[in-house]
Amino acid sequence: MRVKICGITKPIQGKTIASLGATALGFICVRASPRYVTPEQIRAVIDELPQQIDKIGVFANSSKEEIAQTVAESGLTGVQLHGDESIEFCQQLRESLPKVEIIKALRIKNTDDFTKAKTYTKYVDTLLLDAYHPQQLGGTGKTLNWDTLQKFDPDCPWFLAGGLTPQNVSEALEKVKPSGIDLSSGVETAPGDKDLDKVRDLFEKLKN
């Protein structure tokens, strides 16, 4: 199972989190976010990482040109679209960045959103389901209703996100069988500052 720790801002934390067992690190490329990092800051973290770690940039309603430029400057291996990107946008981005993983994140408000999520599966590599919040795009600490997700079975891999912590991850994975999990605020002391003890605790729980 893939484990993505999102909202990385510091090279030493990124390197340590990768060594603890993360398979992917996420970098917030949304300027309004308290976890925002520039392409140069992303590159500083990526330079410290092993080759096999996935490096995912999180964008929201950015242009294809801006995304491509950030990928080129930073060395990202994946792009997560966390805004209102259309199927057509995802398809065009995938064509213009053929070697980059395209992840579409959807904020789930009700069960109708599961149907909407499935419409993207032919046009992206991976889905990510996050909890809905009226003001924030992610990192809210709000969980999804895991019971409603038990029958969610899209035609592509998918990440479970939304309020996951070392304390609740075992319960979540008993109910839901995603291809991966994504944590941000659940392993932080402050936005963008990861709590390495919480990260260690997470991987201990996942081992058990």
From TrEMBL:
Its EC number is 5.3.1.24. The keyword Amino-acid biosynthesis applies. GO terms for molecular function: phosphoribosylanthranilate isomerase activity. Pathway: Amino-acid biosynthesis; L-tryptophan biosynthesis; L-tryptophan from chorismate: step 3/5. InterPro entries: Aldolase_TIM, PRAI_dom, RibuloseP-bd_barrel, TrpF_fam. It comes from the Bacteria. Residues 3-204 form the N-(5'phosphoribosyl) anthranilate isomerase (PRAI) domain. Keywords: Amino-acid biosynthesis, Aromatic amino acid biosynthesis, Isomerase, Tryptophan biosynthesis. It catalyses: N-(5-phospho-beta-D-ribosyl)anthranilate = 1-(2-carboxyphenylamino)-1-deoxy-D-ribulose 5-phosphate. SUPFAM superfamilies: Ribulose-phoshate binding barrel. GO terms for biological process: L-tryptophan biosynthetic process. Belongs to the TrpF family. PANTHER family: N-(5'-PHOSPHORIBOSYL)ANTHRANILATE ISOMERASE. This is N-(5'-phosphoribosyl)anthranilate isomerase.
